Protein backbone atom coordinates (compact mmCIF):
# COMPACT_ATOMS: atom_id res chain seq x y z
CA UNK A 1 0.00 0.00 0.00
CA UNK A 2 1.22 3.49 -0.86
CA UNK A 3 0.18 6.24 1.54
CA UNK A 4 -0.04 9.74 0.10
CA UNK A 5 -1.16 12.74 2.14
CA UNK A 6 -2.78 15.59 0.24
CA UNK A 7 -5.03 18.37 1.52
CA UNK A 8 -5.32 16.90 5.03
CA UNK A 9 -6.36 13.49 3.67
CA UNK A 10 -4.26 10.35 3.45
CA UNK A 11 -4.94 8.31 0.32
CA UNK A 12 -4.33 4.55 0.33
CA UNK A 13 -3.09 3.88 -3.17
CA UNK A 14 -2.39 0.78 -5.23
CA UNK A 15 -1.17 0.66 -8.83
CA UNK A 16 -3.17 -0.58 -11.79
CA UNK A 17 -0.97 -1.92 -14.58
CA UNK A 18 -2.02 -2.29 -18.20
CA UNK A 19 -0.88 -1.28 -21.70
CA UNK A 20 -1.82 1.53 -24.02
CA UNK A 21 -3.32 0.37 -27.32
CA UNK A 22 -1.11 2.69 -29.33
CA UNK A 23 2.61 1.82 -28.97
CA UNK A 24 1.74 -0.83 -26.32
CA UNK A 25 3.62 1.15 -23.66
CA UNK A 26 3.07 0.42 -19.98
CA UNK A 27 0.04 2.28 -18.59
CA UNK A 28 0.13 2.91 -14.84
CA UNK A 29 -2.66 4.41 -12.74
CA UNK A 30 -2.96 5.07 -9.02
CA UNK A 31 -6.15 3.61 -7.56
CA UNK A 32 -7.41 4.89 -4.21
CA UNK A 33 -8.65 1.83 -2.32
CA UNK A 34 -11.42 3.85 -0.67
CA UNK A 35 -12.47 6.22 -3.47
CA UNK A 36 -11.57 4.57 -6.78
CA UNK A 37 -9.41 5.96 -9.60
CA UNK A 38 -6.99 8.58 -8.28
CA UNK A 39 -4.70 9.63 -11.16
CA UNK A 40 -2.83 8.40 -14.19
CA UNK A 41 0.87 8.00 -13.60
CA UNK A 42 2.03 7.64 -17.20
CA UNK A 43 1.37 9.38 -20.50
CA UNK A 44 1.72 7.76 -23.92
CA UNK A 45 3.76 10.02 -26.18
CA UNK A 46 6.34 7.91 -28.04
CA UNK A 47 6.95 4.17 -28.37
CA UNK A 48 9.33 2.52 -25.90
CA UNK A 49 10.59 -0.98 -26.57
CA UNK A 50 11.06 -1.60 -22.86
CA UNK A 51 8.09 -2.14 -20.50
CA UNK A 52 10.05 -0.52 -17.66
CA UNK A 53 10.25 2.86 -19.47
CA UNK A 54 7.46 5.43 -19.41
CA UNK A 55 6.80 9.17 -19.41
CA UNK A 56 5.40 10.54 -16.14
CA UNK A 57 2.42 12.90 -16.13
CA UNK A 58 4.02 15.70 -14.13
CA UNK A 59 1.89 18.25 -15.99
CA UNK A 60 -1.37 17.17 -14.34
CA UNK A 61 0.14 15.57 -11.23
CA UNK A 62 3.36 17.30 -10.13
CA UNK A 63 3.49 15.19 -6.93
CA UNK A 64 4.09 11.94 -8.86
CA UNK A 65 7.87 12.15 -8.82
CA UNK A 66 7.86 12.45 -5.02
CA UNK A 67 5.75 9.31 -4.62
CA UNK A 68 7.82 7.37 -7.15
CA UNK A 69 11.04 8.25 -5.33
CA UNK A 70 9.67 7.66 -1.82
CA UNK A 71 8.44 4.16 -2.66
CA UNK A 72 11.36 3.24 -4.95
CA UNK A 73 8.99 2.71 -7.87
CA UNK A 74 11.45 4.02 -10.44
CA UNK A 75 14.08 6.59 -11.29
CA UNK A 76 14.48 9.26 -13.97
CA UNK A 77 16.78 8.36 -16.83
CA UNK A 78 17.75 11.97 -17.49
CA UNK A 79 15.66 12.81 -20.53
CA UNK A 80 12.22 14.32 -21.05
CA UNK A 81 9.87 14.15 -24.02
CA UNK A 82 8.11 17.30 -25.28
CA UNK A 83 4.40 17.22 -25.99
CA UNK A 84 2.36 20.37 -26.45
CA UNK A 85 3.63 22.97 -23.99
CA UNK A 86 5.09 20.42 -21.53
CA UNK A 87 8.08 18.14 -21.19
CA UNK A 88 7.46 14.79 -19.53
CA UNK A 89 10.33 13.06 -17.70
CA UNK A 90 11.12 9.49 -18.71
CA UNK A 91 11.43 7.02 -15.84
CA UNK A 92 12.75 3.50 -15.63
CA UNK A 93 10.29 1.73 -13.36
CA UNK A 94 11.32 -0.81 -10.76
CA UNK A 95 8.94 -3.54 -11.90
CA UNK A 96 9.53 -5.59 -8.74
CA UNK A 97 8.37 -2.68 -6.59
CA UNK A 98 5.44 -1.97 -8.93
CA UNK A 99 4.34 -5.59 -8.51
CA UNK A 100 4.32 -5.21 -4.70
CA UNK A 101 1.83 -2.33 -4.98
CA UNK A 102 -0.26 -3.71 -7.83
CA UNK A 103 -4.03 -4.18 -7.69
CA UNK A 104 -6.16 -6.23 -10.06
CA UNK A 105 -9.20 -4.00 -9.59
CA UNK A 106 -10.43 -2.82 -13.00
CA UNK A 107 -12.32 0.30 -13.93
CA UNK A 108 -13.61 1.60 -17.27
Key traits:
mainly beta; 12% helix; 108 residues; 4-stranded antiparallel beta sheet; single chain; 8 strands; globular
Task: State the helical fraction.
Answer: 10-25%
Question: Could you say which structural class the secondary elements and strand pairing correspond to?
Answer: mainly beta
Integer-rounded radius of gyration: 13 Å
Global mean pLDDT: 95
Number of strands: 8
Number of domains: 1
Largest sheet: 4 strands, antiparallel
Your description of this structure?
With about 110 residues, the chain is mostly beta strands. It has one domain. Helix content is about 10%, strand content about 50%. It is built from 2 helices and 8 strands; from the N terminus they run ββββββαββα. It has a 4-stranded antiparallel sheet with strand order 1-2-3-4, with no helix packed on it. Strands 5-6-8-7 form a 4-stranded antiparallel sheet. A hairpin with a 6-residue loop joins strand 2 and strand 3. The longest helix has 7 residues. The two termini are about 20 Å apart. The mean pLDDT is about 95.
Give the helices and strands, then pairings.
Layout: E1 2-6, E2 9-19, E3 26-32, E4 36-40, E5 42-43, E6 53-56, H1 64-70, E7 74-83, E8 86-93, H2 95-100
Antiparallel strand pairs: 1-2, 2-3, 3-4, 5-6, 6-8, 7-8
Q: In summary, what is this structure?
A:
The protein has 108 residues and is mostly beta strands. The protein contains 2 helices and 8 strands, in the order ββββββαββα. The strands form 2 sheets. It has a 4-stranded antiparallel sheet with strand order 1-2-3-4, with no helix packed on it. The protein has a 4-stranded antiparallel sheet with strand order 5-6-8-7.
Amino acid sequence: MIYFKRKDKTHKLMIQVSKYEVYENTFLTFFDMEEGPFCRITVNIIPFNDPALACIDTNNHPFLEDIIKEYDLGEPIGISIPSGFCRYPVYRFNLTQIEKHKTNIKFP
